[in-house]
Amino acid sequence: MDISYTAPIQPLNQRARIEPATLEDLPQLVDLTIELFNIEADFVPDRERQERGLQAILEQPSRGRIFVVRTDYEIIGMVNVLFTISTAMGGFVILMEDVIVHPDFRRQGYGTRLVEYVVDFAKRKDFKRITLLTDKISAESQRFFQKLNFHHSHMIPMRLTISE
Questions:
Q1: Cα separation, 23 vs 60, whole angstroms
Q2: What single-letter DSSP state applies at residue 15?
Q3: Domain topology for 10-147
Q4: DSSP letter, residue 77
Q5: Across the chain, what does the average pLDDT equal?
C-alpha cells in the first residue's frame, strides 16, 4: 500500500490550514497532547513520553501521520493516525488518536475539518476503517464524533500496561 499523501493543503479560512506535521512542530504538538491528557481520565501528562511518542510517528511515516491545523504563527489543533492491518477488514486500517484543538479555537469548525481530512486521507489511500477511542465520561466528545458518522462498537477497549 502506498501511504504517501500529497493532498493539497486544506485552507480553513484566511488564518488556518491543515497539513502534515514536521519534526520542527514537535514542541507545539507536545503542548497540545499535554492539554488533551489533562482532560482525559485514563492518562497522566508526561512531556518526555509525549515527545518520544510523537517523534516516533514523525520519524517513521510507515507507522502513521500527524496532521495539524496551522496558522501563520502556531499550531492550533492536531490529530494523529496510526496504521495497522485488520484481518477482519482484510486490509489496512487507521487508529485515530489525539484529536485536540486548543481551547481558544474550539467550536469554530477546526476539529470537524481535521476529522474530515483524516476521512478523506483514508478513502484516498484505501484504508478500510477508522477506529478511535473517546473519553467515556465526555458526552460532548461522543456527540462530536457521532455528528461525523462515527458510531459505538460492540467491542470494548481493554488495556494491559506493560511498562510505566
A1: 11
A2: S
A3: Aminopeptidase (3.40.630)
A4: E
A5: 87
Burial 27-45 (b: 16+ CB within 10 A, else e): ebbbbbbeebbeebeeeee
* Long-range Cβ contacts of 124-127 (<8 Å, 24+ apart): 124/5, 124/7, 125/1, 125/2, 125/3, 125/5, 125/92, 126/1, 126/91, 126/92, 127/83, 127/91, 127/92, 127/93, 127/94
Q: What pTM was estimated for this model as a whole?
A: 0.85
Domain layout of the chain by residue ranges: 10-147
- Nearby residues of 87 by Cβ (< 8 Å), 6 or more positions away: none
Backbone angles phi, psi at 14, to 5 degrees: -65, -25
81 sits in which H/E element: strand 75-86
Would you write out the chain's pLDDT as a tens digit for each of its 164 residues? 555 544 444 455 557 899 999 999 999 999 999 998 888 777 888 999 999 999 999 999 999 999 999 998 899 999 999 999 999 999 999 999 999 999 999 999 999 999 999 999 999 999 999 999 876 667 778 888 899 888 888 888 787 767 76
CB neighbourhood size of 146 (10 A): 12
